[in-house]
Amino acid sequence: xxxxxxxxxxxxxxxxxxxxxxxxxxxxxxxxxxxxxxxxxxxxxxxxxxxxxxxxxxxxxxxxxxxxxxxxxxxxxxxxxxxxxxxxxxxxxxxxxxxxxxxxxxxxxxxxxxxxxxxxxxxxxxxxxxxxxxxxxxxxxxxxxxxxxxxxxxxxxxxxxxxxxxxxxxxxxxxxxxxxxxxxxxxxxxxxxxxxxxxxxxxxxxxxxxxxxxxxxxxxxxxxxxxxxxxxxxxxxxxxxxxxxxxxxxxxxxxxxxxxxxxxxxxxxxxxxxxxxxxxxxxxxxxxxxxxxxxxxxxxxxxxxxxxxxxxxxxxxxxxxxxxxxxxxxx
Length: 331
Known about the structure:
By secondary structure, this protein is of the alpha/beta class. Helices cover 50% and strands 10% of the residues.
């Protein structure tokens, strides 16, 4: 399933559109003055279809999968504003088309000497009406551009979501077990986007590298953190939660455990993983073990230690959810 915003064609901004139409006037002729001026207005009227097509092809907000509906809300800040702006763009484009049609009819009924004056009056009135949508349209174009650049996620495909605090090695793990190639560096950095890769386990599985999340209320989270929470809440799948138990861990056990407990409240299957075990701090490791009921897998995604343990858990999970378990092969 494609990102529903990926192929959505955005129309030009209002002032750009008006300028394009004005430049075209001199290139549009006709056998008579009336025919020429009518054709000029008709060309403008036809161009307005780009705005109506944009509104008609915009995904229905209430019909979107929760993941993409939340993505739209995150990028726009308000689903209600999206709906209002779509309605405003449609209303003004339709009104501008009616005005142009009226002026075409006036040109037909009036003397030829009035044709150019009427064309310019109709052009100006339609442009004034279209300008009412300028703020809404410019804003929606930016929202759609952001959404169209997001990786296509199929919310109906078996999904492994790699989660945890920032800088615990999520990107390194995802690149090690899937086809995804998220940015990986030897210095601490934070993933800003959701990266998607795939595994072939007899059936196709998507693996998602989410931005790190911090222990704070949702209203205090930034856009990057909200993207991660959106994936965790609205994609059905297996969560692999990474703890950093190394000597260079950026977050202490208490901070990591708070984030883990928040993720557990989602009620989804979860695999607990201790990462960077090649540089383990036994005090951190022991403190976290004492506070969780789960038996952790111990790996080093950078050194490729224990990755078979991760693949085995994914295999077991796929077997448990598959309608045809025999189709599931080793990952």
